[in-house]
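Before a colleague's protein record goes any further, I have to sign it off. My question to you is simply how this chain folds and whether the tokens agree. I do not need a full report, just your reasoning and any doubts. This is what I was given:
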Amino acid sequence: MPTNWMLTLRRLLAIIVLCLAGQDALAGSPMYHQSIVMGKEGTPFVQLTNDSELPITAFIMVEFPSLGMEGRTYFDVYINQTEDAIPPGASVTLGLSSFKGSESKVRAEVRAVIFKDGSSAGDPVWVNAVLARRFRMYDRLLSLHDLVSGLVGIGITREGILERLRAAQTDVDKQLPEDDLRTMDDLAFHGAISTFDANRETKPDFVLNPDNSRF
């Protein structure tokens, strides 16, 4: 099993436990505020400001366009490690799916945030939505760990590994609804498939071996 997968598993498990422990702190948790700001070309943005003394590690914004379906934007540094936590006092701007001239019809709101210590602010229903995505990612990585671990030492080819992973993804796609949680499945499978597809010069057993920290 590639070592970076195991590090992600341990990191996610630790933060999930921390967040669950912090649920009792909802009422007295640090806060944030938001506002609609206009870009240079009249494009609206939501500005989220961290008013707490703790970094924000996750939030969810719900958007209500004048036409079309409700949109949701998830930010989570433990799911997307290219994102950075929002420091105390800092702000971020989030683009909205609105055409120029329809600013008065823009409705968007950051429904909940989660802080670095696991405490949260906002609607508990949406806090749980963020946590559900973390749980889903953790469960999917565990299932991939079990799948790939069973391939160690059997002499399987790289193409064989990729075939097993793609077949497993197809089974998941058939069995589970296409919703916000399904995105976590796709992300986990994409990472697994990319790991083996990108290292074509390395023997499959080397990539599978958990003692090799290179991957």
Notes: The two ends are 9 Å apart (CA to CA). Residues 17-128 form a domain with the Immunoglobulin-like fold (CATH 2.60.40). The CA atoms of residues 157 and 204 lie 7 Å apart.
